[in-house]
Structure formats: C-alpha cells, structure tokens
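Example 3.2
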Amino acid sequence: MGNFFKKYRETILYLFFGGATFVVSVVTYSLFSVFLHWGPTLSYIASWFLAVLFAYLTNRIWVFRSQVFDFQGLVREVWQFYLARIVTGVIGWMILMFGVHLLHQNDLLWNGIQNIFVIISNYVLSKLYIFKEVEEVIEDRINE
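Structure, written as tokens:
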C-alpha cells in the first residue's frame, strides 16, 4: 500500500482535495443560492472565489508541495493559479448558464456538472503549467 501511495501520491491527493474543493464549491453555492436567495451568477462567483482559495492553499501545500517562498515567485504562482482558474471558471459559468437558462433545469444540478469539468481541467493546467517547475526542483533534490 505504501508503494502504491508513493507512486500515485499526487493524483490521490489531487482527487481528495479536488473532491474537497468540489464540496466547498457546492456547499457555498447552495448556501448562497438557497438560503441567501442570490441569483446563479452571484452565487457562482462567490462560491468560485472561496473554492479557488481553498484549492490554491491545498494544492500548494499538499498536492504539488510548492517550494516557492520568495515574494516574486509567490506572486507568479498565485497569478498563474488564479488566471487558470479564471479561464476554467468562465467556462464553468457558461456550462451553468447553459443548463439553467437554455435548458431551464435546476441550478444545483448544473453547478455539480460544471464542477466536474472544472476539476479535471484545473488538474491538467496545474500539472502542466503552474506547479511544473516545483516538481522538477523536487525531483532534482531527490536524485541528488
């Protein structure tokens, strides 16, 4: 079991924290939509902001184990992370609006659907672009 976790650590942790981010997004969206009676767009933006903050912190610390600690590096990392999330967030919002306004279906259902797309897309962007250099530094240190 230990070798399995070591081999797939990043993927397992991303799936775990991706699931947790999904929960943060769905729960906060539901709170804003159902209890505060905010519209789909405002509920989406507020829940998106909270979910991205949660995702950044968990991805940085546990999933990709970022070794960037200087101010300039942190600004670059946060900028890239949020920029990628803005792109997938806009696409997620378009999926939500498609389901709610064009198909006239439940916003909570379509919020869940768009979250699945967003989680997968965000992993690919994080792995290939945002935390790529960090993984190379860790691998170099391990190989030394």
